[in-house]
């Protein structure tokens, strides 16, 4: 369904409740399947967490996780280590193009039985679960941190735990640290020093409640909205000063755009007041790849030159995000250059009006471009994509004063 967006008020205000981080939720769901005493609060209502919950009830047959990268990677390890299970793990057309070879090879090194049903190195996978008895594995770490988190999540359930040797430059490191912190919170011992991760075995855990922090990647779109507005007062819950999510760096980054963040209990208050805007923004997003689209579009809206580096993982996400960003920002009149791992945007004075933004089955393309409607009327081609991480996104935009017109054409 297409959606036309506009917003006519100068001041943006609202109070929103954002659900739990999908990254934290999908980790804790795997751990809960391994240690049933774990309970969760503020679980993500995303499609990615829903498919994860459904998959964890299965022991045989075809398990389809649609577009969910974390579900694909974490479940590959989970099913491989689950003795007696026989599943075909598959996903959307795009998921069949997202590589999984490094993880499959690492699991095979541990004794797993996994084969490719279509193309070598890609889903769908046929997995015959086995007890994995080895306790050392090495894996290349600069393609996706999800492979490493997947191994860490099953590690405490292996008889001797697991030592993981990371090869090459480690990417998306905060996601690895998030996995480790969650294990620590549950009383599982482990450490990550230099290029080595060591997780100790744990047979039983007893009962533990995990309170999931709300999703900072979802919050990023409200930072963008605040930055683009003349003035804004937004309240978002439930957040923590010390977050496990690397995307919480958005609060620091958006200071450049005049957005201040303060905590009131477990809510964040975003305050934007008129300010002098920077001429140029340079960020390395190797630790926070999911907010690249948000920042690029904020700069486009404000006419700020922007150089984003550390983006080598973007081409294997829901779409090739570098190409998608370039194509859609050029529709609005921008000049954009991309390399394998960077994007450079050159400012323009006036944005083209009434553009129709293609979404490439990527939730973040829809949500990152939506704030532009504060500047020019805009159409988002497939509004439904947001449900991958943030099903209530459009309702929340209405809450902060947006007018939405939906059409099926
Ligand atoms: O572990 C996770 O929860 C995630 C890790 C990141 O992926 P990469 O490690 O592939 O960059 C991130 O982009 C994704 O949205 C979620
Ligand atoms: C890349 C993302 O998710 P995943 O890799 O889990 O599909 C994302 O949410 O931006």
TrEMBL record:
Residues annotated for 3-phosphoshikimate binding in this entry: 22-23, 27, 144-146, 172, 290, 317
Domain Enolpyruvate transferase: 63-397
GO molecular function: 3-phosphoshikimate 1-carboxyvinyltransferase activity
Pathway(s) of this molecule: Metabolic intermediate biosynthesis; chorismate biosynthesis; chorismate from D-erythrose 4-phosphate and phosphoenolpyruvate: step 6/7
An annotated GO cellular component: cytoplasm
Main location: cytoplasm
UniProt-listed CDD domains: EPSP_synthase
Catalytic activity entry: 3-phosphoshikimate + phosphoenolpyruvate = 5-O-(1-carboxyvinyl)-3-phosphoshikimate + phosphate
Active site: 290
Enzyme class per UniProt: transferase
Glycoprotein as UniProt keyword: no
GO process annotations (BP): amino acid biosynthetic process; aromatic amino acid family biosynthetic process; chorismate biosynthetic process
Residues involved in phosphoenolpyruvate binding: 22, 69, 98, 146, 321, 364, 388
Subcellular localization: Cytoplasm
Entry keyword set: Amino-acid biosynthesis, Aromatic amino acid biosynthesis, Cytoplasm, Transferase
EC number: 2.5.1.19
Similarity remark: Belongs to the EPSP synthase family.
HAMAP family in the cross-refs: EPSP_synth (MF_00210)
Subunit annotation: Monomer.
Its job: Catalyzes the transfer of the enolpyruvyl moiety of phosphoenolpyruvate (PEP) to the 5-hydroxyl of shikimate-3-phosphate (S3P) to produce enolpyruvyl shikimate-3-phosphate and inorganic phosphate.
Protein name: 3-phosphoshikimate 1-carboxyvinyltransferase
Source organism per UniProt: Gillisia limnaea (strain DSM 15749 / LMG 21470 / R-8282)
Organism classification: Bacteria, Pseudomonadati, Bacteroidota, Flavobacteriia, Flavobacteriales
Encoding gene (name): aroA
